[in-house]
Predict the structure.
Amino acid sequence: MLATIAMTTGFLLILIGLYGALSNRNILRMIVAFTVANTGVNLVLVAVGYMNGRTAPILNDAVAAGEAISRIIDPVPQALVLTAIVIGVGITALMLAYTYKLYQTRGSLDIAKHTELKW
Amino acid sequence: MTLSIGMGLLLSVAMVVSAIMATRGKRSLGISILAAGLASLLASVMFLLLAAPDVAMTEAAIGSGLTTFLFFFVLGRVRRGEHD
Amino acid sequence: MIKRFTLMLLLAGLGAIFAGLIQNYVADEELNLTAAYYAAHTAEDIGAANIVTAIIVTYRGLDTLGEVTVLFLTAAIIGLVLSQGNRQQQQPQRKLPPAGELLVTGTRLLLPLILLFGAYVFTHGHLTPGGGFQGGAIIASAMLLLLLSNPMKRFSHRLITVVESASGLAFVIIGLLGIAWAGGFLDNRILPIGTFGELFSAGAIPIIYAFVGLKVGAEFSSMLVSLSETEDL
Amino acid sequence: MAEVLVTLAAIVTCMAFLMVLWRFIKGPSPVDRIIAFDGLTIVSITGILFAALAAERGIYLDVALVYALLSFLGVIVVARFLERGF
Amino acid sequence: MAEFLDILGALLLLAGTIFLLLGGLGLVRMPDIYNRIQAGTKATTLGTLLSLIGVAFLHPEWSLKLLLIGVFLLFTNPLSSQVLARAAHRTGAHKSSSMIVDHLEDDLGEKP
């Protein structure tokens, strides 16, 4: 049940983020929408690894090493998402740096004003 | 069990609302960035409910300060160029 | 108008696909083979209590190396992009409103605390949630706090570069030692595994994660610094 | 008895969360929204406590530590932006 | 005895969340930005501290981490609210009619 809720939320965030990225004309707004979609993707990936009634893949007093197979959830998606979040920040910073450079040289953030690459 | 399902529903509604606030073009850009930051902070609690404390910690450490600062810094530079 | 209509059509199609995915999703009852292997063998092979850490550092260590490389490239490109417009023209200093006394004092109080907590997070990565990436982000947050309390603060580029290069080099050297002394690249058994659940256990994982944390922290800090040193428009 | 009280406390927390969220959506000025953002992070710490209680895992509290130590950075960033501090 | 401690902890937790609720109510109902800052940070900080104590009664083995969370909250929360109030003052939010005394403006010695 919880996995379904989280997955639905993640897909909704992806849709909202895509809509924002494709319908806005300000570049900063497009980047904000991209981060929202990024959060949604991470949420979907973590929700796929969730199993009902199980707990986090960390062994201590609460989960002994012997019974780990029947008690913990899938750790592989978590490891994937962990790296994806850090890379996502790097990508956001890179996009923002290019945005700043674009504004510095052209003086505008509206994509309708940048028509050199249009055909 | 029902407790976490209820919290998940509430967080889900809040995240969708803040995502809509972040992507609607009518509000000011600062509010959009703040709402996106809120969506990422709430996603961190959602990760915790999904039994992924590592991911939740990453999202909380990164989404709170770093991303918000990067956005607001560029926004501040752009704003200063426009108004002065 | 036609553009908006096409966009709506595209999103509706994607939404239909997503709805189908949610409808047909059936949660697993048992762990799949890979996850079951990790769950059963991590405690005795690696000695780490946190299975996610074991996967990131040891089982999939090469991916982590690639990821750290991507981050390094990102930081380098940001520095390159932003430094081109950075001519040596000395503008008169902007007049910024100074930070309040409480913020300055609070920074002085909180900075060691945040740095210490970052170090705690990346040295306890094999026992509790956390690890190099989180610890690095926390250390970069300390730099961010310093930058906020004094926007004209200038950090030493040389120090950041040295920390980043040295920790990256140490990370690769430990990985190569794994080939020589143990089973393969980034094998953590070059040190004794020790007692399960103690701080100095799990072989080389705490050391590797400390270097990863320092490297990630230095990379995020260099991103922040190269952004904040841009000239005013 | 104790379980009932804890469930009641969780419901009260959800109501508080909804109220602060309402201020975040409605808030006429940016400062109102930032106050609501701060309030939401503080309420989230209590939410993390409930998640830890429901899962019976003490290690979840590390996330609350990160929240308590770092969530004020976002507020300070926006506040310094508002007074044109960087 | 253990049962008594459990009930005491749950009661403290409930009291803390009621303070959170009051803080949220103040955030909704207060007329002015500074009053909202007051309600949204003071009451919620007190509520979170009370619920931390309550959880410490429910699970005594988590006490150390809960204490650390409380200490960090006490360090960071007043800082953020003070910086926020200062920013609100600088952006000119003090022009509401309900404000009578303004010490910060007297100290700065500048006319807005």
About this structure: Chain E has one domain: 2-108. Chains E and A do not touch (no CB pair under 8 Å).
